[in-house]
Amino acid sequence: MKVWQVARDWSIEGMELTELPEPAPAPGQVTVRMRAASLNYRDLLTVQGKGGVSRLPLIPFSDGAGEVTAVGDGVTRVAVGDRVCPMFFQSWIDGKVSATSRRYALGGTRPGVLQEVMLLDAEGVSRIPSHLSFQQAATLPCAGLTAWRALFEEANVQPGDTVLVQGTGGVSIFALQFAKLAGASVIVTSSSDDKLERAWTLGADYTINYRSVPDWGKAAAEWAGGGVDHVVEVGGKDTFAQSLEAARVGGTILVIGVLSGFSQQIAIPSLFSKNLHVIGLSVGSRRMFEGMTSAIGRSGMKPVIDRVFSFGAVPDALRLMQQGGHLGKIVVEFD
């Protein structure tokens, strides 16, 4: 079977398309023929050697979808032919987050999805909504689930709440779609008027071009009548101060990304004077994933895909992620 590996060095140029033996499932395991994968910023960082992984070679990427081709003895929760996603955290089935639940992550501490046939624990996969294509379903395990957990497991978004999402990348667009399903109002920021126009078509209630409005946190707070209820913070050091400005007293800042960098001085007086809840989170459990896919199935919601690349063009897909010119998700379709 064909696989992509970071083989020579930690870089996009260090990736190689190679052949490995096709696996067979042992008791409690399944094999999944992968049909599509999607990119996250975390995948780019990992390929560049910034993801905390030290060993080479590594099969990268955490998110994908495919169909079960074989099951080992004792497997009953899925069957041959089922359309499934592998879970990002293979070790987090349910319960609260812990070091143990986060131990096994695809495309990091475990081989990722850029392989034609994956060998997985049967507990580490979940069925996908019937109305979604493999390409659409491949966007769910990390970006979709992170947005879902942020809004509903951590922030408990309610109808009438106001949610601010930064940019138009995968997690932010999912947060926009999920928040609208919940009956919330959504503010979207971007440096591109074209992307903000697209955000309007997806249901945004208010948009801000942060280049023309540098003090966008204040603008968002004023539009929301004194501050927004929830901020989906993906920028990191260049955006966090504005998130503090945007949030209302008693509001929530959901920290899920570091697109502009890691280090930032925090205005501690803003935290305690506003009584803010700042929550860091990454992805979620299989139980959360299944709650999300149930809601997607009932609503008929479809993920937003920017571009689809062939399996042989994975480096080109990573370069598009590096440029940051996409809206929604970048997807790779297997041959």
Class derived from helix and strand content: alpha/beta
- Strand count, sense and closure of the main sheet? 7 strands, mixed
- At CATH level 3, the topology of the largest domain is Quinone Oxidoreductase, Chain A, domain 1
The rough form would be described as globular
Query: Kindly, what is the distance between the CA atoms of the first and last residues, rounded to a whole number of angstroms?
Result: 11 Å
H and E order: EEEHEEEEHHEHEHEHEHEHEHEHE
What integer value in Å does the Rg equal? 20 Å
Total tally of structural domains: 2
Return the average pLDDT rounded to an integer: 93
> Under the CATH scheme, which architecture of the largest domain would be assigned?
Alpha-Beta Complex
Tell me the total number of β-strands: 15
Helix content: 25-40%
Q: Which parts are unreliable, with pLDDT below 50 for 5 consecutive residues or more?
A: 259-263
CATH class group of the largest domain: Alpha Beta
**Can you identify the CATH superfamily of the largest domain?**
Medium-chain alcohol dehydrogenases, catalytic domain
Structure description:
- Strand 1 (2-6) and strand 2 (15-19) form a beta hairpin.
- The chain folds into 2 domains: 2-139 and 303-333, Quinone Oxidoreductase, Chain A, domain 1 (Alpha-Beta Complex); 144-280, NAD(P)-binding Rossmann-like Domain (Rossmann fold).
- With 335 residues, it is of the alpha/beta class.
- Helices cover 27% and strands 26% of the residues.
- Helix 3 crosses helix 4, helix 3 (140-154) packs across helix 9 and helix 6 packs parallel to helix 7.
- The radius of gyration is 20 Å and the shape is globular.
- Residues 259-263 have low confidence and may be disordered.
- It contains 10 helices and 15 strands.
- The strands form 3 sheets. Strands 3, 4, 5, 6, 7, 14 and 15 form a 7-stranded mixed beta sheet that branches.
